[in-house]
Amino acid sequence: MIDQKPLFILNGPNLNRLGRREPDIYGHHTLADVEAWCREAAGDWPVVFRQTNSEDVLIDSVHEAIDEGCGILINPAAFTFTSLALLDALKMFKGPIIEFHISNVHRREEIYHKSLVSKTATAVMAGLGATGYPHAVRALKLLVSEGKR
User: Which parts of the sequence are marked as the site Transition state stabilizer (predicted)?
Assistant: First the structure.
């Protein structure tokens, strides 16, 4: 086990419905699949993996990452476009943040084009499908290792 603070992989509302929710957009893989892929991609690096449909719980998880984590991979889902409180919490985090979206939000309706989270994210990944999560984990590990913000 790496003597390292954990990577926090945080997922927002409705992602617990992966595999059943709009499979033409989000695919047929489940959140359990995503978690397994993320843990495999992390290797010996510790991971905190969470999903919530609640904005306050998601913000509490960001606060925990501020105190205990070294990097955040976040799929804030709908909170991406609506939550100033989430943006304010993420701005306090000193390590790298990857904003992740399963679909390419820029190919969707205009309401999905303006991310508040992007204002503080180190990097943004979108459109790779659920199978893009492990790529994001590997990228986050690299950013942490290089001391990026």
Answer: 21
Instruction: List pLDDT tens digits, range 125-146.
Output: 999 999 999 999 999 999 999 9
Which domains does the chain possess? 7-145 (3.40.50.9100)
Q: Is 133 a residue of the active site?
A: no
**Is 26 known to be catalytic?**
yes
The 10s digit of each residue's pLDDT in 51-65 is: 999 999 999 999 999
Residue type, 99: E
pTM: 0.93
Neighbour-count burial for 114-133, b at 16+ CB within 10 Å, e otherwise = ebbbeebbbbbbbebebebb
| Catalytic-role residue among 29, 101, 113, 133 | 101
